[in-house]
Each structure stands twice: as C-alpha cells, then as structure tokens.
Amino acid sequence: MVKTLSKSVRSATVESAASSPGATIPQDENAQKAARDQEDEDWLRAYQNGDVSGFEKLLKRHRSGVFTFCLKMLGENSAAEDALQEIFLRVVKAAPKWKRQAKVRTWIYTIARNHCIDALRKARHRKTASLDQPLGKEEADGASLGDQTADEKAMAPDRAAAQTRIRKALVSALASLSEEQREVFVMREYAGMPFKEIASVVGVSENTVKSRMRYALEHMRGHLQKAGLGPTEAKGGS
Amino acid sequence: MSETDDNRLVDYLYGEMESADMRAFEDAMQDDPQLSESVQGLESMLENIRTLEVEEAPGHLDSLIMAHAREQTPEPSSWLSRFFARPNASLIFSGACALVLAVVLIPQMSTNEGKSGLEVAPSSELFVADKQPVEKKVSAKAMPKVEEDFEEEAVSQLMGRLGTKDEVSGGSGLGTRGRGGGGDLAGASDEGIGGLASAKSSPKRQPVVARSARKRRSVKRQPVEIASAAEENRPGVFASKESSRAARRIGSKASPSAPAVADVPAAAVAPKSTSGRSVRPSSEAGSDSTTMGFAEANDTRVRARSSRPSPRGVESARKSRKSAPKVARSPAAPMLRGGAVDAEGPRGASTPDREAWARDLARTAQKKAKALIREKRIAEARRIYLDLRPAVRGTMAFFELSLWLAQLEYGQGRYLAARQYAQEASRSRDQRVQNKAREVVARVREDESGPDTRPAGTTDVPVR
User: Fold this and answer.
1) Do B66 and A59 touch (CB under 8 A)?
2) Which of residues 116-145 of A touch B (CB under 8 A)?
3) Is the dihedral of CA B350, B262, B402, B360 positive or negative?
4) Which comes out higher in pLDDT, residue B72 or A18?
5) Which of residues 1-60 of B touch A (CB under 8 A)?
6) Cα–Cα distance, B347 to A65 (Å, whole number)
7) Which residue of B has its CA nearest to A163?
8) Helices A104-124, A179-189: inter-axial angle, 10-degree rounding
9) DSSP per residue over B146-214, as a string?
C-alpha cells in the first residue's frame, strides 16, 4: 500500500522550494536537522550500550528513505527489499564499532550506496529485468514496475492515470541516468540529504556533486519532455 | 554553463543559497532568458516528480531486522568506557588532568629556584628547554639538573686533584637531596656543589659572573647531551634524509632563522634555530651508532656555535618564536637543539600533535604538488609525495598521501601503482579517504577490464 511520504523522509527544502523557490533554509530548520542528527547519534549509542529500542527508533526513522533510495537505484521492488534488509543487517553488525566520524545518516547511506553499487554490478552480468516484467507472484495481475501506482481507490481515475504516466516516465528517466548521477539525485530528492552530506557519502567534492545533480536534472527534464511531460504538464492531476 | 553556474543553479533550486546570492541569481535570471527558462523548466519538472506518491518500505522486514538486532545487541559497556566515549568528557578529563599536573608541578619547580639539586625528570626539563632557544639565558630553575651534572663533573675532576671528597663536601655537608640516591659524589647535591664553590673560591656564594657563565655553558650543552642520552634508545629519531629532503622540496614557510633542513611550514616547526645553521640529519638507519654519532657531531657543532653566540641568531630566534605558532610538544618528544629543526615532528604513535603536524605538512605538499601538476611537472609532484610518506607514516596524512598518489598515477595511466596506492589509502580510518580510494580502485578496474569481480560484502564501510 502506498502512502504519502512522511515529512521526516521528504526533504524540508522540497516544501520550501515548492512554496518559494530558492528560499534559504531557515535557522529553525537547521536547528531541527541538527537535533535529528543528535537524536540519531544518541539512539545509536544507546544501542551500543545494549538498548535495542535505540536501534528500533533508528530503523523507523531511516528505513523509508533507505528503501526509496534502493528502489530508485535498483529499479526493482524485490531487489530493494532485499537490499533494505541486507543494509540494516550490516548496520547492526557494524553498530558496536561505530564512532563519531560522520553522521549516523551519512554512515547508513554509505552502507546503502555501497550495497547498491555491488548489486548493480552483479546485475550487469545478469539479464536486466525489463520494466514491463511482472514483479512477483503477488503482482500476478501483470502489474509491472512501471505500473506501480498509488492506491487507486483513493484517487480519481484521471489523477491515477496521470500518476501512472508520470511514474513510468520517471522510472525510465532514472534508469537512463548514470549511477553517479542517479545516486546523487535520489539522495537529494528522496532522502533530503544536503549536498555536503552527499559528497561525504559518495566520496567526491561538493562541487562535483552539484555538477552531477545538474546533469541529472537536465537529463531527466529532456527525458520527461520526450515522454510528453513538459513544463506545462498538469501536476499529477492535482 | 560553467561549474560555478551549475552550482548556483542547483543551490537555487534546492534552497541552499544565501539571501544575497539568491537575489543576485534572480537578477541574473532576469537578464538571461535562457537561464530563466532553464530554471523554470527544472522547477516544473521537480514539482511533477514530487507529486508522486512514494513507496513505503514493507512492514514485514522490520520484524526480521529487529530480531537480528536483538540477537546481536552489544553488551552494555561500563560507565567508564561510556564516559570516555563521549568526546567532550574525554576532553574535559584531559584538561582537568593537565590542570592538576600544572598545579602540582609548577609550585615544585618554583620552590627549587636557585637550587641545583632539584630532581626534575629529564623529559620535563627537555620539554621546558624546547620552548627556549639554546643561546637564551635560561633561569636556573628551569635547568637545575643540568647544572648539577656539570658541577658533578667539575667536582669529580676537582676531587681527583684535591684527593678527597670530604673537602668538597665539607663546606656544607653532602646533602641527601641529590639525584637518584647517590650518597657520594655521584649524587652530589646542591650542598655539595655549594661546597665545591666554596672550595674553589673563598666566598660562600659563587661569584655571580662565574656562576652565570657556568650556567650559560651548561644550558647550551644540556639539550643536546640530554637529547643524545635520551636518544640512545631511540634510533632514527633525527630527521631522516628523506624527510629532510621532503621538507626542503615542500618549501620553507618557516622564519628566516629556520635552517634549511627544516624547509617545512612554520606551523609544523617549533622555533629552535639560533644562528640559522642547520644540522645535517643522519640517514634513516635508525641504528644506535648512527644516532649517537650524529648526536656527537651535533654536540660538537652546538658547542662550537654556542661558544660564539650570534646576536643575529638570538634576534632571529626571537622573531621565529614570535612568528611560529606555539606547538605543544609531548614531554617525551626528543628535540634537537642548537638550531636544528625537528623535521620529523613529534614522535609517538599518532599523537594529536603528530597528526596536526603531519596534516599541515601534507597540505603544504599537496599545494606544491598541485602547482607542479598544473605545470605538467608530474615527476616532481610525485617525488614530493613519495618523499613525505616516510615522515608521516602512522598518521592519517599518510593515507591521504597514498590517495593523492593513487589519483596521480591513475591520471597518468599507471594503473598498477594507482591500485596499490588506493588500496593502501582505503585502510584509512577517514571515511572520506576510504570512499575516494575505493572510487579510484573501481575506476582502475573498469579501465582495465569491464566486469567487477569483487566478492560480495567487501564494500562495507569498515567502521573502526
């Protein structure tokens, strides 16, 4: 069941960008981010000291973002689920040795990124799943990755159709990006990580990250325009 | 569009721009229709994308992950380890210890003013001496032990001439406040020395001129001799040829009085030079004989130099002391005196001082190497990095150097060397360096052969 992303997962700048594009991040948002980072650290330390609830809180906070990241990177629901499980198992394994060298979120996404890179490289030598291939037994009705839609009962048919179209185009556009551009785009757009943090995850300079983001955005715009989703396209039926 | 324009555009789209820059960018958009169209197109696209519902992670995975997490729950650590795990707590504790030590030691040192029999540990004396150029007149309270040594020497010589130690000690009686338990002349105390003075000259107190001259000589000799004594068991302490060569290549930012051996940044070097002459470092054999030979040679030079104090040297030393930042030195760090600069920096396995020193050195080397690379002088840039590596071994800067070498070699198409350096750099504890090193390794692999043959599970961040 598809639900609206909670605010904690979606970047705060998305909303600010929608309301006033180019607005600077207010001080209170920075304070909120700092508080969240500190909470992550406290929870992880609690887990290091034997408190399982600390890890549970971390998992609840980050699993959606990590799952979305994996889904966008790998392009398959089942692969994303496997990746999510594997990533957090690695987090559990490495948690006792974690030291405050980077933010917890940065650390988790670094593990996620490395896992996705591995998975993609292995997948290169296997037959790539087509976007139209059925996802699994539960999708026996033939729903494909490109057709993955919101709960249609909750939407007007026209909106659902628009959503489907946009989603298909988006998936296709993401798949056409290079891995480097895709990971930057997904981390920024879906995990809400600032560019500086993305740079530390990816291991390049902030300028490089921004350049990749720019190329990713331009590429996607061109791809979506070819799919008929130009700048004048209705906003998903809303 | 240039890289700067790319960055500005992206910053604007995601709200990571200062207000002033944002206004400037909006003005630029008004003047450039193409830019404005581009920004609007991207904003519209992002709006479309953001209207999509995002898939939630399946709930059944949580139970599996939590089950595993419960199984692997770490044992609760003791309150002590938890306390020290906090960075602030460790810092506060270290500061408190330092304060306690200072409170305990300083009064002790001040109460022994004028008395040469003070039992000051050699390392702390050396530490105090580090901060003062050799030729500066150091107060007796800073170097009482050394004075005692020389006095002991003089006493023993005199004893031979006089024939009896009673005469020496008779003036005031041998005190028991000598060093290390010597009841006889070997542990001559200040009383004994006073006795010597009285034996030598009739007044009870030594003439001020004579004592001050003796102090000066003792002060000048002391650092090297203590250094040489301390370094008997520390081979390779002196700057190696390689590191000194590296230091020269990096270029001197030190004060004019710093010797050529230490062509290293002033931040990395304590102001030690006096006359500006350098001491040639020994080879990196690390053998005791080499070290001692060098110490003796240095001793000779220091003596020769110290016997004719150069006003310019004193002045330049004072200037260098002012210009160079105060670098805290570990008491155990062996330092060359007499104008030589410790181009190898503080010793010890990865102490904060050494790390800071190595980091500064590496940054300077990088700047220089980048300038050479821009001029297409690749071999020289490579040589800078290679020469510096032995000096910073054991520090984080070593891995950074490996990374830069890997990038350099990759740029030159020398894949084998690039991979080796990158694998070395990937052992760094710095996550950023690790990631970059892995990136180099990955690129080398891609360039050499297409498929990635890394086994699964080898890409985790090695959290240390």
Assistant:
1) yes
2) 117-118, 121-122, 124-125
3) positive
4) B72
5) 1, 3, 6-7, 9-19, 22, 25-26, 40-58
6) 46
7) B52
8) 140
9) HHHHHHHHHHHHHHHHH--HHHHHHTT---S-SSTT--SGGG--HHHHHHHHHHHSSSSSPPHHHHHHH
- The full DSSP string for B80-129 is HHHHHHSHHHHHHHHHHHHHHHHHHHHHHHHHTTT-TT----HHHHHHHH
Tell if the CB–CB gap between A204 and B439 is shorter than 8 Å. Answer: yes
Q: Are A118 and B442 in contact (CB under 8 A)?
A: no
Residue of B65, B366, B430 best to disrupt the A interface, most CBs of A under 10 A: B65
Interchain contact A161–B (C-beta under 8 A): no
Q: What is the pLDDT of residues A144-194, one digit of tens each?
A: 444 444 444 456 777 777 778 888 888 889 989 999 999 999 999 988 899
Convert the pLDDT of each residue in B32-53 to its tens digit: 898 899 899 899 889 888 888 7
Which segments of A26-140 does DSSP mark as H helices, in order? 27-48, 52-74, 77-94, 104-124
Measured distance CA(B7)–CA(B109) in Å, rounded = 59
Q: Give the integer Cα–Cα distance in Å for B172 and B35.
A: 93
Residue type, A11: S
CA angle B10, A131, A84 (to 5 degrees): 70
From B158, B161, B139, select the one nearest B198 (Cα to Cα): B158
Residues ≥6 apart with Cβ < 8 Å to A13: A25, A192, B14, B15, B16
> Is the CB of residue A160 less than 8 Å from the CB of residue A195?
no
- Residue A124: is it exposed, middle or buried by C-beta count within 10 angstroms (0-12/13-18/19+)? exposed
Determine phi and psi for B364, rounding to 5 degrees.
-65, -40
Q: What is the pTM of this model?
A: 0.43
Q: What is the pLDDT of residues A35-56, one digit of tens each?
A: 999 999 999 999 998 889 999 9
B270 φ/ψ angles, rounded to the nearest 5 degrees: -80, 150
Structure-block tokens of residue B324: 């160079």
d(CA B398, CA B386): 10
